[in-house]
Amino acid sequence: MGILVVGSVAFDSVETPFGKMDSILGGSATYFSTSASFFTDVSLVAVVGDDFQEEHIDFLRSRNIDLTGLSRVNGKTFHWKGKYGYDLNEAQTLETHLNVFESFKPVIPALYAGADYLFLANIDPELQMEVLNQMQKPRVVACDTMNFWISSKREALKKVVERVDILIINEGEARQFTGEANLVKAAKSILAMGAKTLIIKRGEYGVLMFTDSTIFAAPAYPLEEVFDPTGAGDTFAGGFMGYLANTGDTSEEGIRQAIIFGSVMASFNVEDFSLNRLKKLDYKEIESRYRGFKKMTHFEGLSSR
Amino acid sequence: MGILVVGSVAFDSVETPFGKMDSILGGSATYFSTSASFFTDVSLVAVVGDDFQEEHIDFLRSRNIDLTGLSRVNGKTFHWKGKYGYDLNEAQTLETHLNVFESFKPVIPALYAGADYLFLANIDPELQMEVLNQMQKPRVVACDTMNFWISSKREALKKVVERVDILIINEGEARQFTGEANLVKAAKSILAMGAKTLIIKRGEYGVLMFTDSTIFAAPAYPLEEVFDPTGAGDTFAGGFMGYLANTGDTSEEGIRQAIIFGSVMASFNVEDFSLNRLKKLDYKEIESRYRGFKKMTHFEGLSSR
Fold first, then answer.
1. What is the pTM of this model?
2. Range A3-84+92-297 has CATH code 3.40.1190.20
């Protein structure tokens, strides 16, 4: 079995210096599952309202994403409105309408409970825990979170982190969660909570991975045109988990490769609004950019000169 | 012949969240030459006042740095006062007393004019040009600059950049110099001015190198204790040029290795105030951290699986 993701399917209204788009397809589970679908089978648990268009369902189906777990209820779909300045690293949230997402109680279909790979996208840590409790024995559990939960549900979040294998958060969140300005100290403090692997996302600066004995640093792919960073983190996580699930190789070496695949997917995603770039993407382009990462980071080791 | 560096030898008064030091040894040429001295012979052209202590001269001599070009004149040595917050990436300048540095006119001793490697540290671009005009035919010229010269002497700076092989500046300066928010575009615009290689320093995020056809991304070494970032950029440049001069390998592969050596040196330098860490450093530690960089960035390429 492939990956199960629990998160949001949403509409985004996004303004960047390069344009403005209203009510386009978004949501953590949407970006994650689309990205992961390039590598493996994905099942999605989320909720949408009755305003959610059939074309989006069709798109997700076209990516072979199993939508048994997507419930459609009366009301409006979660809607996020945000804005980016020229510093595309940080979004300014203008409006958040949770709508049907407010009463979202993820119920894992029996068929999904045996999934080997589970991604808990950024939702209330108490719900993340409920999902965990409905699962049988996943091989790899990864989770994301955000500043809001770190400040409002810190204890619940800590309990989730105790039970996950991989925590994927951004730099600011790692500092906030631990109260440590220094990232190496912050990482140690998070690993001490129980996660075996910590992946810290740094936007255009790439990713740092920490385990109890190693550090891996991956750059972001320098792009000449970044249109819309929305969903980059979930697209990263999708490529990362997708590759892990595809190979089943959860050694450190496998995780490092998965991080590069995640970075590749995120680098494509920011090239256009919404999922537009992922919709046009093919696997050859993914491999080619992976090779680009390899070239971009290569340097010779020390010989015994 | 080794490297010639023209820049400042100064006193710094530095405050960081971890302590406060008054009138400690600093200056771009000091950091650069000390760092480069681990790899090759260095000659220094700079000016100090009559308050410059013999112990500092002794230290530089102990590193085999040729001080024929260090003039000692009546007056006070250049003194910079700065402060760092927990975000150690950016210094806040509190005071700048140019003192004897104000009337610094670099005169290159005849013996130095044939140097193969020249580093023009951050000084007035008009003086950088005067230095260039006194040189015979250096194999590799690299230069640094700062926001102050970019805004006040842009045209003079452009003329210098036309004539150098390698420009080493920080991210903010690259954006300021070109008016481009996007770093890839900024890099293209700088390479179009004439520099063959552009190295963009990003503090704790590492370094990006651009040529007309390639990009190299190197991380910074994640450190648990960063005491004082002063001089990190010049220490980077010193390790970089020092290694280049040592091997004579100016191929892209050689430049990439030199960037890692520069990053290694900078990572040591920030572990203590002033040049204190470099004073205790030995070459075995340098090689060991280079290997650490190699491990930290390694991932497998794509096999034909």
1. 0.96
2. yes
